[in-house]
Design a protein that fits this description.
This protein is α/β, with parallel strands linked by helices and 272 residues long. The protein has helices spanning 37-47, 82-94, 129-140, 145-154, 164-167, 193-216, 235-246, 261-271, and strands at 4-10, 14-21, 24-25, 29-32, 55-61, 77-79, 100-105, 109-115, 118-125, 162-163, 180-182, 223-227, 251-253.
Amino acid sequence: MGKISLGIDLGSSMTKIAGFSEGSLLIPNSADKAKPAEELISDFLRSNSCSAADIDSIAVTGAGAAAFESPLFNNRMRLIDEFTANRAGGEYFANGEDPFMVVSMGTGTSFVAVDKGRARHMGGIGIGGGTIMGLSRLILETDDIELITKLSEAGSAANTDMRISDISDKPVAGLDMAITVSNFGKAQPELRLEDKAAGIVHMVLESIFQSAALIARDTDIKLFVLIGSVSCFPQCAAMSERIRLLSPEYDFIVPKHSAYGTAIGAALAAQQ
């Protein structure tokens, strides 16, 4: 195996690591932020059958990167700002398409437009994985992400959200009958946990997708690359299809290894 370029995304709740060797993406890894980065790198090396001697460079990014000063495996680390990492990760997934927007769905969500290799932060919203976890603690009394995912897949947001079909027998101003009028607008205390979980996930995803589309309005952006842990919710694919039906000009993609987009971008940006 050739020399390895590592990218580490030190998020507010998770640490993610990705790496490249001879241009090929290795098997990425992640852990709770409480796990030391050195241990996560060791796990990464073992899972990819390589050693510390194979590491050529380490790039660090994310919310916790600025305060991270410890040398790792005696390598000189490079600090990559998160927007640059998102730009490089987005380019890796966009397969040459340009322009596009990287929608980084982490604890909150940021929107980075990329045009001819230049990244521009278009804004962000305080809605993301942190919202799902917080509301789940309040409503579902759990923050077990696997349980939340399982419950949400077994439920239906149609039982929590008020939609046009709930208030009118005919489309309003030509809008689709399934369009949400109010998230949790018809929720009742006796709702099943599964429906509550589905409502939470749907509200967060819908808010992110709609925000991305609104931010991209009056630009040339038609492609949206979704990265971050929230992009791994199964409902993301269904939401992408729904947006595509409502706005055929837009294409939202959830690439393989989307959760590691920022770490992937950090490794690539360091090489650039």
